[in-house]
Amino acid sequence: MPKLQLQVAEMIPVTEAEGPGKRFALWVQGCPILCKACCNPQMLASQGGQWFGLDELLDAIKQVKNQIEGISLLGGEPFAQALGCAWLACAVQRAGLSVMVYSGYTLLQLRHSVQPFSTALLTYTDVLVDGPYERENPETHRRWIGSANQDLHFLSSRYMPSDQRFFGNNTLELHWRAGDLVVNGWPQAAKAFSK
After folding, report:
1. By C-alpha distance, which of 140, 121, 124 is closest to 187?
2. Domain 5-168 fold
3. For strand 127-130 and strand 98-103, is the pairing parallel, antiparallel, or unpaired?
4. What is this structure's pTM?
5. Alpha-carbon distances, residue 189 vs 21, 39, 90 (angstroms)
6. Please, what is the angle between helix 54-63 and helix 82-94, to 10°?
7. What backbone torsions phi and psi does residue 117 show, to the nearest 5 degrees?
8. 114-166 pLDDT per residue, tens
9. Secondary structure class of 108 (helix, strand, coil)
10. Which one-letter DSSP state was computed for residue 31?
């Protein structure tokens, strides 16, 4: 069997801007949805990013395991690389961490998808943010959600809809890495910052 890999656009080992608690955030490269005014347009193309073996990614997560509550898979589109993301999510849950996934597809689309391994990734997802990003329709009451049309689905008992961490203001983080400024968090704030 060939070595499983993920095409990764960006990684931030410890962030509080991409889900509850401190999280390892991993953005995959490539997205077939192509939302208008995507907040990560550099991640849409199937070219770009860097290929990582899944064992290599799991090792990177293990290095910060004692500092984080879980991982967040973003993009690009995680379900476009569902096999690799499902394998990683399964390994992360077995290590006692949670998994949050952001998708431009709706849960209904994913449950009826002909995309291979979509069901497997859903099986190992604790929280799913679904639906296409709509820049003109910003979310103002729920944290970690880009636009008001998107839904938050609790797919396991790990988190509850009443968890107050899912409500309130979004945050923006700045990370200085190897001479580059990496911005993550609330899409509207990131766009305003980059102008």
Report:
1. 140
2. TIM Barrel (3.20.20)
3. parallel
4. 0.88
5. 20, 10, 32
6. 40
7. 75, 10
8. 677 999 999 999 999 999 988 888 888 898 998 899 999 999 999 999 999 99
9. helix
10. -
